[in-house]
Amino acid sequence: MDLPPHKRESVLPLPVVLISTISSDGTLNVAPWGNITPILRPLDEIVLASWLKRDTLDNIRATGEFVVNVPTAGMSREVMICARHYPPEIDEFVEADLIPHPSKTVRPPGIEGCIAWMECTLVEEICREKYVLVIGKVERLEADDRFFTPDGEMDPAVAKPLCMLCGKSGMRFTHPAGDGEYRSYAEMFSWEKGA
Ligand SMILES: Cc1cc2nc3c(=O)[nH]c(=O)nc-3n(C[C@H](O)[C@H](O)[C@H](O)COP(=O)(O)O)c2cc1C
């Protein structure tokens, strides 16, 4: 079937993150984000797509700083509370009962209970008529040991990072099931048949 434009968004599963920022007058803000991707490996930079009318975007522009928090699948309630359109003077940590997790390189705190925290600074904006692509430098990446193997790889069965599939009138929250298969990067450099 050919998918019309309004149905295309269900094709790609997206990660769900919570972006925490601080306004120039010190108000904390949190908003969920799905359109976010690393810029290649090893996660030195990320890019996120933002509609123009976002307190998150205003705060990133005002302070040059933000934290990308990776929530667990169990945090969908908090995600939806933070998705509401609060006025900029409302502290969304308070609204969603979130506990700040101290950052080391940027002013906005992360969110306690998340799997990982990327402390980011604004590098560049690519502005279009209706949206902006924000490129951020990951200054520091902290991960909660509970969700990672001793050599620093996320264990998806334990962490259950929140993901979503967009539908016609809502989002289907999910998380990577993990089928136990693990393929080596070395395979990409081998062109032997059947290797
Ligand atoms: C799961 C989820 C993902 C979202 N992803 C995005 C996104 O990628 N870009 C965007 O501009 N808004 C996105 N939104 C909408 C914003 O989170 C929402 O409008 C929020 O109120 C913005 O808050 P702010 O004005 O405090 O930044 C998403 C909402 C949800 C629930």
Automatic annotation (TrEMBL):
Q: Which InterPro entries match?
A: Flavin_Rdtase-like_dom, Split_barrel_FMN-bd
Recorded family membership: Belongs to the flavoredoxin family.
Give the protein name, as stated in the record: Flavin reductase family protein
Organism whose genome encodes this protein: Methanofollis aquaemaris
Q: Which Gene3D superfamilies match?
A: Electron Transport, Fmn-binding Protein, Chain A (2.30.110.10)
Q: Fetch the Pfam families from UniProt.
A: Flavin_Reduct
Q: Does the keyword Flavoprotein apply?
A: yes
Can you tell which superkingdom this protein's organism belongs to?
Archaea
Q: Which GO terms describe its molecular function?
A: FMN binding
**Which PANTHER family does its entry note?**
FLAVIN REDUCTASE LIKE DOMAIN-CONTAINING PROTEIN, FLAVOPROTEIN OXYGENASE
Provide the Flavin reductase like domain boundaries: 12-149
Q: What are the names of the required cofactors?
A: FMN
Taxonomic lineage is: Archaea, Methanobacteriati, Methanobacteriota, Stenosarchaea group, Methanomicrobia
Keywords associated with the record: Flavoprotein, FMN
